[in-house]
Every structure is written in structure tokens, then in C-alpha cells.
Design a protein that fits this description.
This protein has 102 residues and is mostly helical.
């Protein structure tokens, strides 16, 4: 049976991440999970990359006044409210005409 080799944490990467404001725990986990230079990618490393990419996208979205989905949802909501208001207005006018005929 072959023993699994434990990867050593990348101290340079850890220091670089810390200097850029990444929290200690996050930097330590990233440095531990990422393979050393020249070795194959690992699942934890790929997961860390995906997590960081999604965090970057979220930050960019918030800087640009929210994501497009939110803007589209707001427009849809406004259209629905307008449509409902028009329906209420038509119903009120119809009721007023009926009352006027009596």
C-alpha cells in the first residue's frame, strides 16, 4: 500500500495573499490546497479558483449598480404594476359608467 504524500503549504502564495488583504484562514486553506508549481491540478485547487472567481464576479456586479438580473426583475415588476393599475382603472371606469346609468 502506497502512502499518500501530503503537499506542503506554499508559503510564498500565503504571504502574497495576506499582503493583498485575504484573511489568514482563507489564505492558509488556499496555500494548503493548491499544488506546488509544476504538479497537476487538484480538485480542491479548482474549487478554490471557482470560489474566488465567483466572488470577483459578485463584487464587480455590485460595483456596477447590481447585476443585470436585478435590473430586469425591476423592469418586469414595474410593467406588472402598471398593467394591474390599468386594469383597476378600467374596472373603476366601467363601474362608474354603470352607476351613472341608474
Amino acid at each position: 500500500m502506497m502512502a499518500a504524500t501530503k503537499t506542503k503549504p506554499d508559503k510564498k502564495l500565503y504571504k502574497r495573499l495576506r499582503s493583498r488583504g485575504v484573511r489568514k484562514g482563507v489564505a492558509k486553506r488556499l496555500a494548503d490546497s493548491l499544488p506546488r508549481q509544476g504538479s497537476a491540478k487538484t480538485k480542491p485547487a479548482q474549487r478554490a479558483i471557482d470560489d474566488l472567481s465567483s466572488a470577483v464576479e459578485e463584487i464587480k456586479g455590485r460595483l456596477n449598480h447590481g447585476p443585470r438580473k436585478r435590473s430586469q426583475a425591476a423592469k418586469k415588476g414595474a410593467a406588472t404594476r402598471k398593467r394591474n393599475a390599468d386594469a383597476r382603472s378600467r374596472a373603476a371606469k366601467k363601474g362608474a359608467r354603470k352607476r351613472a346609468r341608474r
